[in-house]
Specification:
The protein is of the alpha/beta class. It has a single domain, classed as Glutaredoxin, CATH 3.40.30. About 30% of the residues lie in helices and about 30% in strands. It is built from 4 helices and 9 strands; from the N terminus they run βββαβαβαββββα. It has a 5-stranded mixed beta sheet with strand order 5-4-3-8-9. A two-stranded antiparallel ribbon has the order 1-2. A two-stranded antiparallel ribbon has the order 6-7. A hairpin with a 3-residue loop joins β1 and β2. α1 packs parallel to α4. The mean pLDDT is about 95.
């Protein structure tokens, strides 16, 4: 299963950084950027998080919030947020249910070995919780600025 443009955000509740439990429904009334990334504290994921952080005030000005999602633990997320000063929540999807709902679990290959992992991808929802744009196979550098332009155009 994978979300398509026009679908509503899934209502799953997940543990988040900062000791919270959040659902994407908690963000209704705001535009919402949901980005999936493979692993805390890795170079690409750190760069992507830092770029979203750098643009965060502009996202807020445009009426949007941001949520990052990986299968890392809340403890790992808390450390990642503290280390890099991320101002937005990171959701811990340990069982992969949210990743599956978004179609973010894909077959990957490393050193000839195939495995299932999180594809770096981003989803933009409008203030009513309706999916408006999808980015797949994202390259971290410059991605946050591109997403910000889409948020402003919404």
């Amino acid at each position: 299963m994978s979300l398509k443009i026009g679908d509503k955000a899934p209502a799953l509740k997940l543990p988040a950084s900062g000791g919270r439990e959040l659902s994407l429904k908690d963000y209704r009334g705001k535009k919402l950027v949901v980005y999936f990334y493979p692993k805390d504290n890795t170079p690409g994921c750190t760069l992507e998080g830092q770029e979203f952080t750098a643009h965060y005030p502009d996202f807020v000005k445009a009426g949007a919030d941001i949520v990052g999602v990986s299968r890392d633990s809340v403890k790992s997320h808390d450390g990642f947020c503290a280390k890099f000063g991320f101002p937005y929540a990171l959701l811990s999807d340990a069982d992969g249910k949210l990743c599956e709902a978004f179609g973010a679990i894909v077959e990957k290959s490393m050193y000839g070995r195939k495995y299932l992992g999180i594809e770096r991808c981003t989803f933009l929802f409008d203030a009513q919780g309706v999916l408006r744009k999808i980015w797949r196979k994202v390259s971290p550098k410059g991605h946050a600025a591109e997403v910000l332009q889409a948020v402003k155009a919404l």
